Amino acid sequence: MSTLIRGGTVVNHDLSQRADVLIDGGRIVAVGEKLEAPAGAEIVDAGGCYVMPGGIDPHTHMELMFMGKVSADDFEWGTKAGLSGGTTMIVDFCIPAPGESMLAAYQAWRHKAEKACADYSFHMAVTQWSPQIHDEMETVVKTYGINTFKHFMAYKGALMVNDDELYNSFRRCAQLGALPLVHAENGDVVARMQADLLARGVTGPEGHSYSRPPEVEGEAANRAIMIADMAGCPLYIVHVSCEQTHDAIRRAKQAGQRVFGEPLVQYLVLDDSEYQNKDWDYAAGRVMSPPFRNKKHQDSLWAGLQSGTLSVVATDHCSFTIEQKRNGVGDFTKIPNGTGGLEDRLPVLWNAGVNTGRLTKEEFVAATSTNIARILNMYPKKGAVRVGSDADLVIWDPKATKTITAKKQVSRIEYNVFEGYTCTGVPRTVFSRGRIAWHEGDMRAKPGDGEFVRREPNAPVNVANAIWKGLTQPKPVARPDIVP
Ligand code: DUC
Ligand code: ZN
Ligand code: ZN
Ligand code: ZN
């Protein structure tokens, strides 16, 4: 069955135009003025609205066992939360348990994701180094269609990798045409600061932010960037929260390195005063890593989005209930790290970015959808309102208003870090591969509607430091043309 979205303004990252959008078989088959409706087509009115590519959140953790707790939103509720806020695809992290193979982790994640209501893809985490992992990475890329590997430079004694492991894995990524991702925080320093704070009697949630200052992040970001340069691979830094990391990215870009930065929407509007709240549950609900920063850092992140030194806005959606957070009463290091935000990312970024004049609506589309589709090698299947692309679309009403409250959210937790924040500009109708998945509060998507999106490796690019040029050229990997 075909659908005609009529009367809206199509917004892509490069252009906005008055145009109708015709959908058939889950894809966009025409974009143009005054399109004729085929016989039997469903007509959807988009008068006064924008028609944008559905949001892609490249950083989520559904049903993740982390710090002894399993995050509350699973693939069903997480993707439903996303759809209700205009996000039509998530990229989640497969994280092997200690001793578990990447292949077993991949299968476990595929199983968890069977109930996804919207499309999804995965990154794979490298949490140690061994000949087995070296070999498994090739299977992950070539057989499982995952072209990104995540590395934690923090969480000492759990997920953290050292420089030797980072360098080995980055070299392997270069050979495979894969993109390494880093959680940039110096885990050794964090562990020591945590111990010092606890010894001084600082046990509440404010200790979390004191133990992870911006310098801890900036140091790790600089180190990862230099290691990527030596290994000859591009680099993607997740959850960029501060000026120090932004500055490292800016300098690396200037020097010709392909380095991408991902601020979170939470960092753009919330600051570190949240951890001083006297209500323990309130403050603990905001505990995530890296923590929220002050205004100076927020301004730097906005500047990065405006200038293009930062590319993508994500959420790191990893939702823990109050009960789970209370595990850390008396010891902030035991508060499970993570917050929600998936359903609020687009409305909050629109309100704080587009309505204030900080971002154009085209830049908004780039930051929420197109840039990440390109970085992760799934453009233009995803990330564009364009003939041949998947019909993952959001009809956006720029005049409609919503006040965010946990009472009305889709996410399964009892609080919302944006509680009371009023957004002007919200989704009206959300399409997932051509089907109406959500319309004005009516959730129509069903568990199992989401599909896994394979992502092929990138052609190796010549990003190597001079020491590698001509010495060990990565084996070429063909980049299949995904343009239909
Ligand atoms: N940070 C969080 O806050 N939660 C999940 C993992 C992470 O790095
Ligand atoms: Zn299964
Ligand atoms: Zn992280
Ligand atoms: Zn994360």
Automatic annotation (TrEMBL):
GO terms for molecular function: dihydropyrimidinase activity; metal ion binding. InterPro entries: Amidohydro-rel (IPR006680), Hydantoinase/dihydroPyrase (IPR011778), Metal-dep_hydrolase_composite (IPR011059), Metal_Hydrolase (IPR032466), Metallo-dep_Hydrolases_sf (IPR050378). One of its GO terms (biological process) is nucleobase-containing small molecule metabolic process. The modification N6-carboxylysine is found at K150. Its cofactor is Zn(2+). One of its GO terms (cellular component) is cytosol. Gene3D superfamilies: Metal-dependent hydrolases, Urease, subunit C, domain 1. Its EC number is 3.5.2.2. It holds the Pfam family Amidohydro_1. Belongs to the metallo-dependent hydrolases superfamily. Hydantoinase/dihydropyrimidinase family. Catalyzes the hydrolysis of dihydropyrimidines and of the structurally related DL-5-mono-substituted hydantoins, to produce N-carbamoyl-D-amino acids. Homotetramer. This is D-hydantoinase/dihydropyrimidinase. It comes from Aestuariivirga litoralis.
